[in-house]
Amino acid sequence: MATTSDIRNGLCIRMNNDIYKVVEFLHVKPGKGPAFVRTRLKSVTTGKTLENTFPAGHKIDEVRVESHKFQYLYNDGEFYHFMHVDDYSQIRLLESALDTPELLKEGEVVTVLINTEDNLPLSVEMPASVILEVTHTEPGVKGNTATNATKPATVETGAEINVPLFINEGDKIRVETDKGTYKERIKE
User: Fold this and answer.
1) What CATH number has the domain spanning 65-125?
2) Cβ distance 72 to 87 under 8 Å?
3) CATH topology of 2-62 equal to that of 65-125?
C-alpha cells in the first residue's frame, strides 16, 4: 500500500473498482487545517477524467505496471492494432485507451502500459510530439502577420490543427500530442 506522498504523474492506482492514471497532482498545505493532495485522474478503461482530493497520509492502492514499446499498425474502425517492437506479438486496443488517436500515424512507436497482475494493456502513452504532413489548408494572406493569426489545417492523419498563416500544403509540422497544438515547422 502506498500513501499520498507516493503520488506522481503517471502513477496507476485502483479506486472505485477501476484503475486510474494520475494525470496531474498538487500537494496543498493550507495555513489552517490539514494538508491534502488534489489530483486529476484518468480512467484507463473508459478514458473519463475526474478530480479527486486525498487527505495527507491517505492509503492508496497502487497498481504495478510495466511499459513496453509498441508500433502502431492500423485501425479497423473499432480497434487500434499494435505490434511489440521486440517479440513482434500483436495486441489490439479500444480507441478509449488512447489519449489522442487522431494524431497517431502508421508506424509510430508508442509506450503501452501493461498491468503486471493480469498482463492486460491499460493505456497508450504517445510521444511528446509527432511530425505530420499538412494535406490541406487555405493559402495565407500576405501582410496579415502582425498578430499571431492562425488558420485551420488538415494533417495526414485527418486531424485538424490551427497553424500559423505561413504554413502551406505539403509542409511537415511538429504537433504536441498532449494538447494537439502546432509547435514548429520542420525544415527539410
Assistant:
1) 2.40.50.140
2) no
3) no
The stretch 18-31 carries a mean pLDDT of 88
Map out the domains of the chain as residue ranges: 2-62, 65-125, 129-186
pTM score of the predicted model: 0.71
How many Cα atoms within 13 Å fall on the side-chain side of residue 169?
6
- Read off the pLDDT of each residue in 74-95 and give the average, rounded to a whole number: 87
Kindly indicate the confidence band of residue 70, based on its pLDDT and cuts at 50, 70 and 90: very high
pLDDT (0 to 100) of residue 141: 66
Are 139 and 168 in contact by the 8 Å Cβ rule? The answer is yes
The yes or no reply on domain 2-62 and CATH 2.30.30.30 is: yes
Which one-letter DSSP state was computed for residue 32?
Answer: S
Answer for the pair 127, 109: CB distance below 8 angstroms, yes or no.
yes
Rounded CA-CA distance 100/95 in Å is: 9
Fold (CATH) for 129-186: OB fold (Dihydrolipoamide Acetyltransferase, E2P) (2.40.50)
Where do the DSSP E strands lie in the chain?
Answer: 2-3, 12-15, 18-28, 36-43, 49-55, 59-62, 65-75, 79-84, 90-94, 109-115, 121-125, 129-137, 150-155, 160-164, 172-176, 181-186
The per-residue pLDDT for 23 is 86
Cα(182)–Cα(134) distance, rounded to whole angstroms? Answer: 11
